[in-house]
Amino acid sequence: MTSTPADTLTISRRFNGPPNSANGGYVAGLLGPLVGDCATVRLTAPPPLERPLGLRPTDDGYALLDDGRAVARARPGRMTLEPPPAPTIEQARAAMRHYRGQTEDTFRGCFVCGMDRHPGDGLRVFAGPLEDGQAVAAAWTPEASVADKQGNVKAEFVWAALDCPGAFALGQGEVEVLLLGEMTTELRGTVPATEPYVVVGWREGEEGRKQYSGTALFDASGACLAIARGTWFAVPRERIA
Prior knowledge:
241 residues, mainly beta, Thiol Ester Dehydrase, Chain A, 11-stranded antiparallel beta sheet, 11 strands, 12% helix
């Protein structure tokens, strides 16, 4: 293990994804770094907000518990993806103009991708389709409020930024929406706050009810600082509205 965490944690309502539960990438980012720079986190229930959750070691990682029931489990991961070529920041900014979340109702308050979140409140990662139609991208300049004492973006916010672009790469439907079920993330370098970055998401296929995405974070030079593979499940909008 890379650190010894507290026995409990409480997720602030600020960090919601769906209206009444936490953003999956953010929760995964709280647990994953406890087991290393590459970790897999499986979400087994909607992570609740504003109440103490137990954090317990397991044989190979950690479990996050709500009244004894696991809502997330972290274990060491293995990254099998390679990032695509990085678009420029200008290309990512152009893609944001076509961000499909502009007409999205269910997730307008999402900490990561919600249009109703203001600067200083949400991450505002608005990934829209690139010209080639093969991926989505967003320009992102993380604020100092999400940085550690060294000025680097905290791991949980890097994980969070790599969450929602995966869903928009796959496409949210009118009747059903995608929710994150599992996320494997590899952190490859520090991410200094207040610098410009590009977040990219792309489709990695599907298998039965599961859909897979890749996401990556690049600096202005095109270096990949983090990469993730997401597993998604479609659920009716009415279940999470």
